[in-house]
Amino acid sequence: MAGVEIGGLSTVYPNGVRAVDGLDLGVVDGELFALLGPSGCGKTTLLRTIAGLEQATDGKVLIGGRDVTREQPGSRGVAMVFQDYALFPHMTVAENIAYPLRVRRAPKARQREVAERTAAGLSLSGLLDRRPGQLSGGQQQRTALARAVAVEADVLLLDEPLSNLDARLRLEARTFLKRLQRELALTTVFVTHDQAEALALADRIAVMESGRIRQLGTPREVFQRPADTFVANFIGSTPMNLLDGVVRGDGVECVGALLPLPADLADGTPVVVGVRPEYLTVAAEGIAGRVSIVENLGVTSLVTLECAGGTLVGLTVPEQEEPAVGDALHACPAPGRLLCYGEDGLLLGA
Ligand code: ATP
């Protein structure tokens, strides 16, 4: 078992792209850690640099307290699952999964047992005798995941481990991955661009942009108190409402309403007010607006409200109270759930 420590790490490609840019990060022993960010932010490069598949230009990588920055991938004690799976085409699913044990000359019965157990958890039981060429993309991905788990490495590195699965299988694989990770207390770093997946699975998340970490925290911290407007925009199935406002006394004037001020700021300060759709309800008073869009989600409906000087999205109302387009409504933010960002985009009063 081992944690991962990264200090001042930069990875620059020969073409000059600084994919990882002076990054510090600590993954605790036994933690399930997500690297989350938009395409091109450097997640995969960071993962590959931890694995030793890319050479760090600057800084250090420590695994289990040991400096592995200049070590070969094979001696770092990590197992990695790639986006393209890298399965052995001539071996069956069972042989692929058990391969790491075979290399270590584990008894045949043990190889079979590990293959069957991991395969069962990843819904691969019926496929143990097939070869990769006879599998769907999702099945190949699960086989690769099962093989990486069988390595019994100190640290498991996963690049978009669930990206190829359909919605139902993704949920199943998520549950399995989390349970297995808990059981084995396996330090796991996984890359994803899917904020919902990171929120659901990870103990902690690093939100990345341009080779740097914008925020590092628990899913709750990152969801409830995004450190800046970039993170606020990126996290949440419906993005946070970000609206221009001005501090007036002990309130903030925003979209035609005077809202409670969440931070101690001077009168007249321009701010961006952040409010998550999930924390908005229809009320007798609050932010006045007119319904412009109603989206039916089954049990609830998502309402967009045009207010004075801004649009509020994601107001959730029960199906039986669904308003009509053109209706006048008031939306009220839940107490303590408003956030204020400065002109530089950083959370105020953090
Ligand atoms: P995605 O989610 O699309 O996989 P990512 O966040 O994993 O993206 P990386 O693949 O790490 O991002 O890429 C980070 C930056 O480095 C990008 O600008 C990318 O174009 C660049 N890059 C990646 N691989 C190489 C390479 N081999 N040579 C040069 N530049 C590269």
From TrEMBL:
It comes from Umezawaea tangerina. The keyword Aminoacyl-tRNA synthetase does not apply. It comes from the Bacteria. PROSITE patterns: ABC_TRANSPORTER_2. GO terms for molecular function: ABC-type ferric iron transporter activity; ATP binding; ATP hydrolysis activity. This is Carbohydrate ABC transporter ATP-binding protein (CUT1 family). Gene3D superfamilies: 2.40.50.100, Nucleic acid-binding proteins, P-loop containing nucleotide triphosphate hydrolases. SMART domains: AAA. GO terms for cellular component: ATP-binding cassette (ABC) transporter complex, substrate-binding subunit-containing. Residues 4-235 form the ABC transporter domain. The keyword Cell membrane applies. Keywords: ATP-binding, Cell membrane, Membrane, Nucleotide-binding, Transport. Pfam families: ABC_tran (PF00005), TOBE_2 (PF08402). CDD domains: ABC_Carb_Solutes_like (cd03259). Transmembrane segments: none annotated.
